[in-house]
Amino acid sequence: MSSHSATTTSTIPSLEESLVQSLPKTVYYIPNFISSAEEAQLLREIVSQPKPKWTILTHRRLQTHPSALTKNNVLLAAPLPPWLESIVPRMQQLKIWDNAPHKKPNHVLINEYNPGEGIMPHEDGGAYFGCVATVSLGASIVLDLYSKHTNADSGESGEAEAGAQKSTRFPKWRILQEPRSLLITTHDMYTDHLHGIQNITVDEDLNETTVANWTLLGDKEVFSTGRYERQTRTSLTYRDVIKVSNVGKLFGGRK
Ligand SMILES: O=C(O)CCC(=O)C(=O)O
Ligand SMILES: [Fe+2]
């Protein structure tokens, strides 16, 4: 009976036990939120999307489901594809969407990072209800967190930086996201902080003092050397877009 736990639905830990206590409010980290079979299925769906679904960016590529927002940050009403919707009820069990305008996510960005790729520090902003739920697929990666208001003192300078990281900001905290994990970012952490992923090939210096969610990790052994060689990592970021418009209305009622 060893490895026959095919479904994990009944074993999600509570939000309380998933709180990342060392961070400003509020971040939750849940390892193994999905099973390996679900992870494989999601990755199959992602790679089988038609080529034009991908937006190629300098340091990653991106899919937007069901579609990109309009210039005014409006989502044209459409359901999420069923393969992305499949894990939404499990998120709803955690009650993280209870205060959201639509009570569940209606938009998913899919980011794929090869080794050496990343995303500049940014905030996700006011188009969305202030909660993002990130499912990681394929490999681990470090997410850096920054205070929104620069304080010039932090961090050593010294390290010669290759690439275009112009703002010399240093991450204040780091979160290690394992494959199949769920990361929930909400409240002040959503509104008052920036997050980013460095364009590097190895995440280094990983240990219980440098990784905010160390005690919550599913498998610390993987990081026992303190180093993690990046592999392709894909993330699904689930959000609730506040403004939704019916296409019919939009085109029918033109003023
Ligand atoms: O890949 C991630 O975990 C972060 C993605 C992200 O920050 C975004 O799409 O806004
Ligand atoms: Fe983001």
TrEMBL record:
Localisation per UniProt entry: Nucleus
Gene Ontology annotations for the cellular component aspect, listed alphabetically: nucleus
Coiled coil: none
GO molecular function: dioxygenase activity; metal ion binding
PROSITE patterns associated with the record: FE2OG_OXY (PS51471)
InterPro entries cross-referenced by the UniProt entry: AlkB-like (IPR027450), AlkB-like_sf (IPR037151), ALKBH6 (IPR032862), Oxoglu/Fe-dep_dioxygenase_dom (IPR005123)
PANTHER family found in the cross-reference section: ALPHA-KETOGLUTARATE-DEPENDENT DIOXYGENASE ALKB HOMOLOG 6 (PTHR46030:SF1)
Family, as annotated: Belongs to the alkB family.
Descriptive protein name: Similar to Probable alpha-ketoglutarate-dependent dioxygenase ABH6 acc. no. Q5PQ59
